[in-house]
Amino acid sequence: MILFELFCAFFEIALFSIGGGYAAMPMIRSQVVQAHGWMTMSEFADLLTIAEMTPGPIQLNAATFAGMRVAGFPGALCASLGVVTPSLLLVSLLAYVYRRWQSLSVIQGVLGFLRPAVVALIASAGLDVLLLVLFHGQRIALQTADWLGAGLFVLALVLLRARKMSPILVMVLCGVLSLAVGVLFGAA
Amino acid sequence: MKEKTQGKLWQLFVSMLAISACTFGGGFVIVSLMKKKFVDEYGWLDESEMLDYTALSQSCPGAIAVNAAILVGWRVGGAAGMLAAVLGTMLPPLGILTVITMFYSAFVGNPYVTLLLSGMQAGVAAVLCDVVLSMGRGVLAQRSAVKNAVMAAAFAAVYVFDVSVAMVIVCAGVLGAALQLAARKEADA
User: Fold this and answer.
1) Which one, out of A24, A50, A73, B8, has a CA that is 20 to 30 A from the CA of B105?
2) Contact A160/B at CB under 8 A
3) B72 and B60 in one domain?
4) What is each CA distance from B11 to B17, B22, B27, B72, B148, in whole angstroms?
5) Chain B residues touching A111 at Cβ < 8 A
């Protein structure tokens, strides 16, 4: 039963994520963290880190990670099949429509309006990750703030935007700095 | 002839396996590697076809890499080609993440790993922020009041009013289709 649930959840994720990896992320969060409670927000943030650092589409990475944690390898397999199935159905359909009418203008019109919505969705999910980094799910106040996390966030943002550094490198650097500070000041 | 087809399917499967196992970052990277392999190296399709397939895979729900694999697989070897390409794309993430998840469960309690991961979470937050800033600027640059309103409304709906993500996507898509059709009618008239 749990296998079928995994299949359906990732079927839905794939069905509503249009336009690449980051667009899938709010959908993954709403299914895996909010609707089914298969992961905590912190585990979800770890999943994003892992998915960013490993090859392959984020939807398939997320499916395997969530499936393995909930129901072992069969779970990973069912969730991955859930990701692929909507594509198999819809791509054939869209390819047929495209060959028939040779025009993508309505599709492009739809995409033009999905883009602003998707930006907003990513912003919303990103804000939750940022709050997790800054306050660890606690009440938002100066006393509960994680200043190391805040500093790393600002540093990472500067490296990404001003120096155009690769995201993977930036994340590794943040991890190493956090480890170094923790070991030096005995937080571990 | 049959052997030739089987050879082609095998080549398709192995190529997709290698491409999927070696590409970090989203679908666009994978699509450009597919172009190099299937258009430039094997000559199975021409460049304009590949461009159309890229547009189609972006317009379709699901992972861009999976969508592109389906289209190229179908074009090269029919239903069997489609299956070979999809399997090739699926297997590397499945294998790699299976192993990583096993390590994750074993290591996540370790204080050093926790420090490393919490630092990396700050990095992820920055990456997302960077994506939003770049994409958001792209939307604002179009100077379309309707699109800006859609962006603001979508954020409020999800973050403040807890509307489901799927609902937001469907509404934005329907609005886009309606406006496009209306604009076309106006152009015809």
Assistant:
1) A24
2) yes
3) yes
4) 10, 17, 21, 13, 46
5) 58-59, 176
